């Protein structure tokens, strides 16, 4: 079997995958800027219009793993392109939204398409690049994701300055057109002929949807009894779901992959790292606002984070093809811990520079940690389970981000979210991520058998 796509087809496939990632990431974050305008135009309360964002995120988390399993069975390329088409059609329907319920339905359909794209994108990256360059490929994709997330608010603001709010959603359509047009160059590995576990897929979606939805309801002041009942129902479904998946030959929830210590440690580390980063990013604007910074100044203070990440992430991905992820991740989280400590101990009246260089240092630490971590998860899985590994990467990322946002909201509701507490909490989570990374350096974990870790090049080189 060939190792990666030949040039120049590989470059076209990379462009298609890059546009596909930008498509769903930009549209996932661009709506934030338009929320006040949408609330005014549709005549709904600001608290209600926030559901435009939450319904998208919750649907994504619910569907990523089921769609990854679907991709293994009907084909990665087919799942990816079908997701793009669904997303593009739903985006066009935003122009006809005259009420909040219709817009929420359209956003849910957008999330279905986005789940089809994100669930198999890492597996397609693995098929596109030679195994010796997998870290480089994931690093490049990480830059695209980070830069798209950073650019989304700016793009949204520019669109609103010259056009009505439906055009905010349409601004990502060019990426869909380019990605679909270049889609012929994507790798098309043979699907695995197996029955899709529909009951398992519904249990997976219910588990994530009920737990996350219940947690959101609890934080935002709804009935505590009802919220806890929703969480308990989701946890109960999850308990039966996990027990059911343990006996499946190709489970939707990849318990077979999580049984491998190197993947389990990487998943836990990724979850805590994303939770830490989102906790800080959501709470920092409130802290800076209390310090007297304007909205424009706050944006400028936070900007060094994604900008630094855009530089460090591809370098880290390149290095991960040569240096074990445990070393890179340990260094990255050490840098992050220093940065978070410095953020927690900022002067009471900081200048722009006081905040900006600390944010840049924090962004570089996360940029050094995350691409090698994703490479290890995707590269350590058998090729026939690459879609499940990629779905795990995306699910962990979104779950961590959602958990971080919920944690930040809880701290704000408790009256301690606009001070030094969030960076301290984030530092504790970063410490856990760093310990998980260092634990992977143990010989029994770092150097498993060749049949267990087929494409993890740094580890295999060390074991020879």
* Distance linking N and C termini: 23 Å
Portion of residues in helices?
over 70%
N to C succession of SSEs: HHHHHHHHHHHHHHHHHHHH
Which term fits the overall shape?
globular
Number of strands: 0
Number of helical elements: 20
Beta-strand percentage range: under 5%
TL;DR?
With 464 residues, the chain is mainly alpha-helical. 78% of the residues lie in helices and 0% in strands.
Entry keywords:
464 residues, mainly alpha, globular, disordered C terminus
Please give a structural write-up.
- This protein has helices spanning 9-42, 46-49, 51-74, 76-93, 100-128, 134-162, 166-170, 173-181, 198-219, 224-245, 255-258, 261-290, 295-302, 304-320, 325-344, 352-380, 386-413, 421-439, 443-446, 457-463.
- Helix 3 (51-74) packs antiparallel against helix 17 (386-413) and helix 12 packs antiparallel against helix 18.
- The two termini are 23 Å apart.
- The model is unreliable at 448-464 (pLDDT under 50).
- By secondary structure, it is an all-alpha fold.
- It is globular, with a radius of gyration of 21 Å.
- It is built from 20 helices and no strands.
Give the SSE map.
Layout: H1 9-42, H2 46-49, H3 51-74, H4 76-93, H5 100-128, H6 134-162, H7 166-170, H8 173-181, H9 198-219, H10 224-245, H11 255-258, H12 261-290, H13 295-302, H14 304-320, H15 325-344, H16 352-380, H17 386-413, H18 421-439, H19 443-446, H20 457-463
Helix pairs in contact: 1-3, 1-5, 1-6, 1-8, 3-4, 3-5, 3-9, 3-17, 4-5, 4-8, 5-17, 6-14, 6-16, 9-10, 9-17, 12-13, 12-16, 12-17, 12-18, 13-16, 14-16, 15-16, 15-18, 16-17
């Amino acid at each position: 079997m060939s190792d990666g796509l030949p040039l120049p087809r590989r470059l076209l496939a990379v462009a298609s995958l890059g546009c596909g990632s930008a498509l769903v990431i930009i549209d996932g974050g661009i709506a934030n800027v338009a929320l006040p305008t949408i609330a005014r135009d549709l005549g709904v309360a600001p608290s209600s219009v926030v559901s435009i964002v939450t319904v998208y995120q919750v649907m994504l988390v619910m569907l990523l793993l089921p769609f990854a399993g679907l991709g293994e069975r009907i084909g990665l390329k087919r799942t990816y392109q079908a997701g793009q088409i669904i997303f593009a059609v739903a985006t066009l329907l935003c122009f006809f939204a005259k009420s909040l319920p219709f817009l929420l339905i359209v956003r849910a359909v957008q999330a279905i398409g986005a789940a089809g794209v994100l669930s198999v994108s890492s597996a397609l990256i693995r098929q596109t690049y030679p195994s010796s360059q997998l870290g480089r490929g994931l690093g490049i994709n990480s830059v695209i994701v980070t830069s798209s997330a950073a650019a989304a608010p700016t793009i949204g603001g520019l669109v609103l300055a010259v056009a009505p709010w439906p055009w905010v959603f349409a601004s990502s359509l060019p990426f869909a057109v380019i990605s679909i047009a270049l889609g012929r160059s994507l790798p098309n590995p043979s699907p695995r002929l197996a029955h899709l576990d529909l009951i398992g897929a519904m249990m997976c979606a219910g588990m994530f949807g009920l737990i996350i939805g219940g947690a959101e309801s609890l934080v935002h002041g709804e009935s505590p009894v009802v919220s806890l009942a929703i969480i308990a129902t989701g946890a109960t479904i999850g308990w039966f779901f996990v027990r059911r998946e343990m006996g499946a030959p190709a489970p939707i929830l990849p318990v077979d992959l999580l049984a491998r210590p190197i993947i389990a440690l990487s998943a836990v580390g990724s979850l805590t790292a994303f939770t830490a980063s989102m906790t800080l990013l959501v709470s920092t604007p409130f802290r800076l606002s209390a310090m007297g910074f304007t909205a424009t100044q706050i944006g400028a203070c936070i900007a060094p984070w994604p900008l630094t990440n855009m530089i460090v992430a591809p370098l880290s991905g390149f290095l991960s093809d040569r240096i074990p992820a445990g070393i890179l991740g340990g260094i990255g989280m050490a840098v992050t811990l220093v940065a978070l400590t410095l953020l927690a101990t900022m002067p009471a009246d900081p200048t722009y520079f006081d905040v900006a260089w600390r944010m840049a240092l924090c962004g570089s630490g996360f940029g050094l940690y995350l691409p090698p971590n994703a490479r290890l998860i995707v590269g350590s899985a058998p090729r026939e389970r690459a879609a499940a590994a990629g779905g795990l990467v995306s699910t962990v990322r979104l779950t961590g981000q959602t958990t971080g946002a919920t944690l930040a909201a809880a701290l704000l509701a408790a009256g301690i979210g606009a001070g030094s507490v969030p960076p301290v909490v984030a530092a504790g989570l970063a410490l856990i991520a760093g310990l998980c990374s260092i634990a992977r350096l143990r010989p029994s974990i770092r150097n498993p058998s060749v049949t267990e870790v087929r494409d993890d090049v740094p580890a295999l080189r060390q074991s020879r």
